[in-house]
Amino acid sequence: MAARGHVQDPNDRRLRPIYDYLDNGNNKMAIQQADKLLKKHKDLHCAKVLKAIGLQRTGKQDEAFTLAQEVATLEPTDDNSLQALTILYREMHRPELVTKLYEAAVKKVPLSEEYHSHLFMAYARVGEYKKMQQAGMALYKIVPKNPYYFWSVMSLVMQAISAQDEKLSQTMFLPLAERMVEKMVKEEKIEAEAEVQLYFMILERLGKCVEALDVIRGPLGEKLTSELQSRESKCMMLYRRLQRWPECNSLAHKLLLKNPDDWQFYPSYFDSLFHLMDQSWSPPEDGDHCSEGSVHHTVAEVMRFVEERITGEDGKDSRSLRGPYLARLELMHRLRERGCPEERLLGDPLELMVQFFGKFGDKPCCITDLKIYLHLLCPDQHVQFINRLGEAVPLGEQGDEGLCFPEDTKALQRHLCVSQLGRALGLHHALDPDGKLRLIAQLKAHYRHGLKFGTNALKTELQFSDMYCLMAAHVYVDLWKETGDDNMVWRCLGVLQEGLTLSPSNAQFKLLLLLVYCHLGAFEPVVDLYSSLDAKHVQHDTIGFLLTRYAESLGQFAAASQSCNFSLRFFHSNQKDTSEYIIQAYKYGAFEKIPEFIALRNRLNQSLHFAQVRTERMLLDLFLEADIVLSLEESVKAMSLSPEEDDIPWDTMRDNRDLTVFTSWDPKDRELTEEHRRRSLEEETVWLRLRSLTLRLLAALASPGRAPPPQNSDTTNENGVGGGSSVLGGLLGQLQLALQAAAQVAERRTQYPFLGPPSTRLASALSSGSCQCQAAALQLSVHLQELEDVGLDESSALQTQICNGFKSLVVQLQEILNRCKGDFLEMKEGKLKTRPSLLENLVFFVETVCVVLWTASHCAKVLRPLKTSLQKKKKKKKDANTALPAVVCGFQELTGGLQDLLTQTLEFIKGQETDITALKLAGLSLEGHTQDEEAFTKAAMDKVQSSYLRSLQEAGDLLRKRAETIKSLKI
Known about the structure:
Layout: H1 10-23, H2 27-40, H3 45-57, H4 61-73, H5 79-91, H6 95-108, H7 113-126, H8 129-142, H9 146-162, H10 166-186, H11 193-205, H12 209-217, H13 230-242, H14 245-258, H15 265-278, H16 299-314, H17 323-338, H18 349-360, H19 365-371, H20 382-391, E1 395-398, E2 404-406, H21 409-424, H22 433-450, H23 466-483, H24 486-502, H25 507-519, H26 524-533, H27 539-542, H28 545-551, H29 557-587, H30 594-605, H31 608-625, H32 632-638, H33 674-701, H34 721-748, H35 762-767, H36 770-790, H37 796-818, E3 825-828, E4 831-834, H38 836-877, H39 886-918, H40 931-966
Antiparallel strand pairs: 1-2, 3-4
Helix pairs in contact: 1-2, 1-3, 2-3, 3-4, 3-5, 5-6, 6-7, 7-8, 7-29, 8-9, 9-10, 10-11, 11-12, 12-13, 13-14, 14-15, 16-17, 17-18, 19-21, 20-21, 22-23, 23-24, 24-25, 24-40, 25-26, 28-29, 29-30, 29-31, 31-33, 33-34, 33-36, 34-36, 36-37, 36-38, 37-38, 37-39, 38-39, 38-40, 39-40
């Protein structure tokens, strides 16, 4: 509200109190003040709009809109009213109304630069690129400033980017944009770097690489100064596109002479060498090798160049640069890939890596640098390599535990790097269980010793030795997975909780804790852990899956709803935010960023995670509220759910998950592969399709009742009678196909790495029988519609079929319930064991009961009028037979069966709650633990116990509410 123009008139003074109230959030006082002012000055339009803003913010949207439209129809031209209406429409999420506002203002004040630029930005908010182009040119004609002209050019480029027809953008929009810029170039009117960037972007999109190269290397290229080496980077990219390998090679080696540590040019240098070798290129006999200068076209020249850079680094008094040493290893890797014998001339990879470690081992980046070249070592060199590195680590005297510890942080970093490389070479995994326990003891000792270097560290800083703690946790996970010993996972939680206490900002501790708790079936501690990660912006899309995957499946419905909201809030604000970014990019001439913002918006709109949380959130709302708070029909209407519409972009869906968010030092054979990624995406997509179809089927079930068929009419569909059933039938057909695809995916039983993507709920949904039972329940609604058409008189076979369906549902639900039975948490031989699969099955039972009850409610609505109609007919005929129709008896049996099932389930849940509460965790003896370790481990156990109780309580509460709804199912 602060930007209110600079109109020095009495009205500004009168309006100021209202602005102040709105700025301070005192909306009621703002409305009262506006009313007072309007009594005295009825024609003060701005006061009306400010009142509307107050009404909008107090939830009276309809009143606010009516008031705003009163002012908008008067087509105001005063700055105060226009700005206030702009703010109001933005808060209403109606940016298209702002365009109409300024279109009218521009007609009335055609020479106003301010209103024309506001109109342009209003079009930018709604993505009206053609109108933006016209508005930009109109603005340039009024005020001939370069930025306005280039706004118009950029709008043409945006039309090309957004055009469905690629041919149209290549033959019309981009050539026109090119001609417009060329006109300015000929007239020598190009002033700013942004204008050159835009020209380059147009030529690049047209595929005119030669012309683009001329621009970059010519006088216009001199304007590219905002980024370091901007011209050189662009030239390199164009040379690669044009496959001008001599120039690419020459430019790369010139740039590397200037800065031998600039890694981005080494790959181009090596790529160009091998392309030149493949083409058998040789330099001309006289003159320069190419326009950029001399070319290194043989392996010997490139090796000599790299060795010279290393010699230069070795001779320096100051600290050496890593680039040349890594370049040697990269060249060795590429030569080995091509089977070139010259690889041997570079030396022994083991010696080169030991040398690299000697120079850079005290830097945290050493592990990531060397890890990618470990494959150059032979398997029988692995132990020798680690021993050689160990010799290069300066350690102090042997302590009480028989271990030598580093005496400063640099030595600690070297020792840590050796441990990390040992794990990356698979040496940790090769140990037997006792060997792994000894390794853990060493890692924990080094971790605790290293804490003395961080005694004065701030809470936001990490401890120097944190990675020892994380590695110990990883080895505990290895032991848990290999031996099935639950003690290992409790110890893992204990060591991570200890690490987090001393280093509360360590995101890796939080992430691994989050994952282990979820694997144990405890979601309650995860909410606070994820919240403390303080995920920002796009992270809600990239790591949000860690939260949303487990929340509902572990029975924490309230937390599941909250976690979906976290993500959805970000996705919904993305639309609005992106428009603002685009406007800022236009204002400041950052044209090359505009397509990037559009790409980001598309990437988020097409996100797999967005589609998942949207679907799961709506299903959750139905499970928690439909027929409890609101009827199913009202719930579906409130969500604007349409069974006919599928708003998930299946063909363009993107997997934006960050599956490498966990720090891992696993060897290559245990790492996440592309096949894992592909299978995970396929599994996620199939599960999403099942959930989406279930949601749409529930919406179809809740669609308004069908009109009774007219007498002697065959055109049932035209009268809306067949419409509902055809949608339902079509969706059920799709559901059957999706279930077949799901069965094939589940049969593979793909095992992902522990730190890789989590498996979906798909396999357990099928094995529990939940999906099949829900499909059977929804299928019944189609038979009910057939019964509605035929009536109760002549439908004995159909009634028998429906009754069998009712019986089958109760049997299937009983089977799902049987799969939940067992102790969720149990104490065996002094060890605490969790059984999360039973909890997941209980949640599937709860979801399936909801679907069956909604189907039963639908059946009751169909059967009530049919039964009444039959009784009336019997009265007329004076039929003494009072026997109920078979379908009505079957329905009564169904409701009775459901009531019994729910009573049985609630008793089971109550029994589990009693058993879990009775577990005496305090009495557990944890062998081999120090007192501190025992305290942290028992705290973790308490959290798991509390989480299971919370899950059982939420499931029980929901089932009790559902049991109440059975009473309303009487016919």
